[in-house]
Structure formats: C-alpha cells, structure tokens
Write a structure and sequence with these properties.
A hairpin with a 7-residue loop joins strand 11 (198-203) and strand 12 (211-216). The protein has one domain (8-249). The strands form 2 sheets. Strands 3, 6, 8, 9, 11, 12, 13 and 14 form an 8-stranded mixed sheet that branches. Helices cover 15% and strands 42% of the residues. The chain has 254 residues and is mainly β.
Length: 254
C-alpha cells in the first residue's frame, strides 16, 4: 500500500498530537474511561473516546451479560480500557447509546517497517420476523415444548444473507476513521433484484420493538445489517503477513 510522507518530522509531530488526543487523561469529574486499546502480539489498536467491553453494559457501565474471556482479557483504569487479544477474531460490545462510527482509530506496529490496510465489511441480511402470537406459553404443555417450538421455527425460518465490503479506510500516518453505516447500505439490500422484496409494515412488537418492513418469500421480514466488522491486514512492504477481524457491536438499550 502506497504511503506518502513529506518529512519524518511531520509524521512524528502528528503521531504525538493525535496520541495525546486519543489517550489524554480524564478530567476531574469524569466517571468512565476515554478510550480503549487492544494489544495484539505484533501491534496495538486504540480507539479514542469510545469504551469497548467483552460484555454488554448499560449506561451505568453495569454488566448485563457475563465477561467472556475466551477471546480477550481486559484491565480497566480511570483513563482507558486495555485488552490483551487471544485470538485473531474478536467480538466486542460498544458503550450503550454510542456508535463506533466516525471514531478515530490508531494502529501502531511493533515493527516500524510494517503498515496496515483496514476495511469495513457488512453482513447484509433479510430474515423472517418472529411473531410472538404464534408462540403463546399458556398454549404449550411445558416450557420445554414452548422452547422447542421457537427453536424449530428459528432453524427453518426464511432468511438470506451475504458479506460485502463497505468502505476502505484511508491510512493517515497510522490513523484510520471508522465509517458510519449510511442509508446506502440498506438501499443495496432493498434494490437487490434477486430478493424481490415488497414493502410492508407489520407491527409484531411484544416486550420489545419488533416491526417487519419487507415481505420476503411471502413472509413478513426484517431487512438490515446483521453485523459489521473491521478487517485489519498487516503488511511488510507489499507482502501480507496476517489478518485480524474485530466485530464491534453497538448497543442501544432503552
């Protein structure tokens, strides 16, 4: 990947300035860390002003799910979250109510001769919407019968998905801007001729919002982005050395 620098001094000054902005200590009165850093064996990744976790947190930073340490271990301080990666693919939760889109990410290799290519990928999906009216607990003989019915439906429900490249992130002296997922991503699904989607609006909400917006194969369905992830390719000159994948799950909790 071609990288153009004017002078070593400009690169050094930019690195110092942005590193300070990313990792500056919390001011008095701050109650949560200001950034997150992931340490891989050969490089480190820092996202400024965005708190990652290996568990789902609410707005009070209280864990809603168990801490999964199969992929990563972590330490939390007043200024940042530090992770030690155990695997090439990581699944992490973002802080409640905050999007990772438009956040600044810095990659620092241990070997200064190496550089990175970073891209954002999407899993587009259409999936038959769950209808709680079909699964009434009181109509089932046992709880197991109810769960088996739901799992059987989930296994056989109408669905479609594909993985597509969304954006390539520009390398600015080791800094990359995480893209926001725009309306164009959803338009690509809706306008896909092979799906033959039809518009609808069916409210199947129960304890949580559950609204079908398209008809797919005669089933009221959800259309959207099931997941998105960052692919980080590490290069020495033009030779690809390894690849890492980071799934960042943005969480919005009512």
């Amino acid at each position: 990947m071609k990288r153009i620098f004017t002078t070593a001094g400009i690169v050094t000054a930019a690195w110092i300035f942005f590193s300070f902005q990313l990792l500056k200590p919390a001011t008095e009165g701050d109650e949560k860390p200001k950034g997150s850093t992931i340490y891989f064996p050969t490089f480190q990744l820092t996202i400024g002003n965005y708190v990652l976790s290996n568990t789902l947190l609410n707005e009070e930073q209280t864990a809603l799910t168990y801490h999964d340490t199969t992929e990563i271990t972590f330490r939390k301080s007043e200024t940042e979250i530090k992770f030690l990666a155990k695997r090439d693919t990581l699944h992490l939760y973002g802080e409640a109510g905050e999007s990772s889109g438009n956040k600044l990410m810095q990659l620092i290799p241990k070997n200064s001769a190496e550089h990175f290519k970073v891209t954002c990928w999407l899993e587009e999906c259409v999936s038959e919407q769950y209808d709680p009216n079909r699964f009434i607990m009181s109509e089932r003989q046992t709880t197991d019968d109810y769960l088996k019915a739901v799992l059987l439906w989930d296994k056989n429900k109408v669905r479609w998905n594909r993985i597509v490249k969304y954006r390539e992130m520009n390398d600015s002296a080791g800094f990359f801007r995480i893209p926001e997922i725009g309306d164009d991503a959803y338009s690509d699904i809706r306008n896909n001729p092979e799906l033959q989607l039809r518009d609808t609006l069916v409210d199947l909400s129960g304890e949580s919002a559950n609204i079908a917006t398209v008809v797919y194969k005669n089933k009221a369905s959800y259309m959207g982005i099931c997941s998105d992830f960052i692919r980080i390719e590490r290069y020495k000159e033009e030779q690809l050395i390894d690849t890492k994948y980071i799934f960042i799950i943005d969480t919005y909790i009512d």
